[in-house]
Structure formats: structure tokens, C-alpha cells
UniProtKB/TrEMBL annotation:
Record's protein name: MBL fold metallo-hydrolase
Classification via Pfam families: Lactamase_B
InterPro entries, per the entry: Metallo-B-lactamas, Sec-metab_biosynth-thioest
Coiled coil segments of this chain: none
Metallo-beta-lactamase domain boundaries: 35-246
CDD domains: TTHA1429-like_MBL-fold
Length: 341
């Protein structure tokens, strides 16, 4: 039986990690991940946060109160670097900016997505999601529930980062490392003066991040392929101490990156074999229902099924890019089948 060091949010405490770095656990209400680890990095101008947490009153109380416990004040924060645009990372960045005047920075690819989300009219994003689910082969009940709610759109950033850019952190060297996959603009942040790597969701100690395609049937991107290349790139940084956004801090990020890559290669092999055994092409939804998840498909909520379908789509797209399978266009849905060798 697999054991884990993961502990509930109630057992988490703000910590001084030494070297002018602190961590504050910030709850994610109603989410099995439990919390986001927000980091503060000291500088002569004031601390810069790595991520900010979910936009919720309890999360704000935890962030501001946790910083206070460590002798820091949220009003003294000079900047928030968002590893990626997801709401458990970017959600409170706007409130931190309102309280302190801090700048918000994220990679330019995720910044473009945030601008796109701000441009959606009421209901437009829900209609987009519903159409995507239907084209993947989802049933009407799954479509209705999966499109019922949507988190608040993250605040627009003030600054955009590219790979290799140094964050505005006087007296320190905090460099952006573009690691696309989980999102197009995901970044890790290498604290070069301390041999530490803030890994966001890219490399976690026990679980693997969600890597999906949205819309599911896109053929112009390969996020899983990007993710695997990003893992190799992180591995080249060496055995740095990893400061992830979830779970716990761990040593040797290169070793863990190699484990995650191996996990996905095995998953790709199993999926390729599954399609080879099928006489008829499969929809993305049918494929997802046949894959192995952390619980049976029938036990997954509609929202989790939607995420599983996104991940199935990403694995199918990588196999397609490698020439192992092909897509079969349909009137309403796309299907995939193995290419005979």
C-alpha cells in the first residue's frame, strides 16, 4: 500500500525556511489538494511572493495572517510572481496588489490566456466548454454539471516574463524557467543564489500535475510533449532543493522529474496498446473511460471526468505527434485509432 507524507491543511503552519525564504500554507476550500504553499522571498525593497492562493476570505486570512506570524506584512509585499494562471495560484494576486501596490508578473503565454478570459462575455465561456465536451463524446448530464460553475478570472498582470528573465528582486537572483505543459505559460523559478527551485505545479513530490488539451480536439498543440521536454530541462538543473506549490518541500528535483517522465511514458505505452486492440476508433470520452485513474470512471464527478478527458486528449495528441495513432474526423466528434505497423 502506497504511503504519503501529505498532511491536511489543519496540520500546516507558516515556516521560516532560512536564507530569506518563508512558506505560508493557504487553503483551497472544497479541493482535495487542501492548500497552496505560497512562498515569500526577502529583498531590501520588501518581500516578493511566489504565487498567492485561491481568492476566498479564508485564504486571504491565512495568507495575511501567516505572513504576520513570520514577521512580514502583506502591505509591504512588492511583487507577486505567478507560476501559472490557475485560481489556486493567481486568485489572491489582485487583492495583494490592492493592499500593497505590488506588481503582478506571469509568463507572457499565460498572460495572453488571462486577457482572453477577461474578454469573454457572460455565458460565453460556459457555451465554449459545453461545445467542447459534446465534441469529445460526453453525455448531456456530464455537460450540464461540468459547466455549472467557474472560478473568478485572475487579475491581469502588470509584467510579463519570458524564459530566462530575472524577476525584479534586488539583491537576489530569481530566474524564470519556462516549463510549459500544465499550462502554456507555466514557469519554475530558480533562486540561483540559494540553489532552490520553486516548481509551482510542474514537479510535485507525490502526485503528477494535470496536463490536458482545451479544446480537447485541437491538433495544433502538444502540451504533454511540451511537459516531457520541460521535465528534461528541469532535470538538467541538477539536484536542487524543490519548493513546490503543493504537498511538501523535497530534495533532488532532477530525480523526481525523471520519475514523472517515466510515469507518462508508461501511460503512453498502455494507451497505445489499448487502441491497437480496438477494431473501431474511439472518441476522446470513450478513451478516457477506459484509462486508469485514481478511482473508477463511474465514481468520478462530471468535473473530474472533464479533466480526465482533457488528460486523455493530451496523451492521444502526443501519440498522434509521434506517428503511433491517427485521428478519424467525424460529423460531431473526432475519433482515434492505432496505425498498423
Amino acid at each position: 500500500m502506497k504511503t504519503t507524507r501529505r498532511r491536511p491543511y489543519a496540520e500546516q503552519r507558516p515556516q521560516d525556511l532560512g536564507g530569506g525564504v518563508w512558506s505560508v500554507p493557504v487553503p483551497i476550500p472544497g479541493n482535495p489538494l487542501g492548500y497552496t504553499l505560497v512562498y515569500a522571498v526577502d529583498s531590501p525593497k520588501g518581500p516578493v511572493l511566489v504565487d498567492a492562493g485561491w481568492n476566498h476570505p479564508d485564504a486571504w486570512a491565512a495568507l495575511s495572517g501567516g505572513l504576520r506570524t513570520l514577521g512580514l506584512d502583506v502591505t509591504a509585499v512588492t511583487g507577486v510572481v505567478v507560476t501559472h494562471f490557475h485560481p489556486d495560484h493567481a486568485g489572491l494576486a489582485g487583492q495583494v496588489r490592492a493592499e500593497s501596490g505590488a506588481w503582478i508578473a506571469m509568463h507572457e503565454a499565460d498572460a495572453a490566456l488571462v486577457r482572453l478570459m477577461h474578454s469573454f462575455a457572460d455565458g460565453e465561456h460556459r457555451d465554449f466548454q459545453a461545445d467542447m465536451l459534446r465534441r469529445a463524446g460526453a453525455g448531456q448530464d456530464d455537460v450540464a454539471v461540468a459547466t455549472a460553475g467557474r472560478p473568478d478570472t485572475p487579475a491581469l498582470p502588470d509584467r510579463e516574463l519570458r524564459d530566462g528573465d530575472l524577476v525584479d528582486l534586488p539583491g537576489r537572483k530569481l530566474r524564470a524557467v519556462h516549463t510549459p505543459g500544465h499550462t502554456p505559460g507555466h514557469i519554475c523559478l530558480h533562486l540561483e543564489d540559494a540553489d532552490r527551485l520553486f516548481t509551482g505545479d510542474h514537479v510535485l513530490p507525490d502526485i503528477t500535475p494535470h496536463v490536458g488539451i482545451y479544446p480537447y480536439d485541437r491538433d495544433d498543440v502538444d502540451p504533454l510533449g511540451d511537459f516531457l521536454e520541460s521535465l528534461d530541462r528541469v532535470g538538467e538543473l541538477g539536484a536542487l532543493d524543490a519548493l513546490p506549490a503543493h504537498e511538501w518541500i523535497f530534495p533532488d528535483v532532477a530525480a523526481r522529474a525523471a520519475e514523472i517522465r517515466h510515469h507518462h511514458e508508461e501511460k503512453l505505452q498502455r494507451l497505445g496498446a489499448l487502441l491497437s486492440e480496438r477494431a473501431e476508433p474511439l472518441t476522446i470520452w470513450e478513451t478516457a473511460a477506459m484509462m486508469t485513474w485514481n478511482r473508477p470512471w463511474d465514481d468520478l464527478s462530471p468535473i473530474l471526468r472533464g479533466m480526465a478527458a482533457g488528460e486523455a486528449a493530451a496523451h492521444l495528441r502526443t501519440l498522434e505527434a509521434r506517428g503511433a495513432i491517427r485521428r478519424v474526423p467525424g460529423v460531431d466528434t473526432v475519433r482515434f485509432q492505432a496505425i498498423e505497423s
